[in-house]
What does this fold into?
Amino acid sequence: MTTNASSIRAFTVQMSWPDERCIVAAPGPSLTPEVAHRVRMARWTEGWRLIVVNDAYRRLPVADILYGCDETWWDLHKGCPEFHGERWSSHEQDPDPKQIHGNDKGEAAVRYGLTLVRGQDGDEFSFCNKFIRYGSNAGFQAINLALLKGCNDIVLVGFDMRHVAGLSHFFGDHPAQLRRTADEGYRGFARHFERAARALPADVFIVNATPGSALKCFPILDLEEALNGSGWESRPKKSAPG
It folds into this structure.
């Protein structure tokens, strides 16, 4: 049976990872082979969930989810057929006329088997399972997806939010067909995260295990401390049921 792009609809995100821990890996320069190896071990042996953003899948093909918000990126990678987890993206088939962009991914979903979630402008994370907030970057959206999946403890890796030794990503720059982010653009991304961090519920704890990251609104931890829990003393205590 052939699927028509016009019949594609965004999905409601199911809370399929309730109270599980999640690593969200972006493709910043700090996503080294050593970091990727430690994250893989956390995924395989310590029960962490793993969402990768864009090219981070090349270092972490074992991830549960690959998230990419740019249709051109999916086209350049031909849908990442070598990735065997879930592929997610944002979608607006009937965008709000007040929004300044369209984001119809129906055809991409058909081509590459993407699961779509409705995207909405805004710089606070959505806790409604019918949509995620854009926050102007795919890393923001991937974190929002982890939250909607039910993860309240989230560790970030590869979120440098700056150029390191002239590199914007661990592999260098995106090809010319894709937008290349300057440092001012990264500072703009960081402002979205800062506003989202101030609005987080008390039971959500996000830590940044990216060394030298320009993203300062989440507690900064060494990766090992973040994964083994020794650096989580400042995490708010969860209330007992009832």
Summary: The mean pLDDT is 86. The chain has one domain: 5-228.
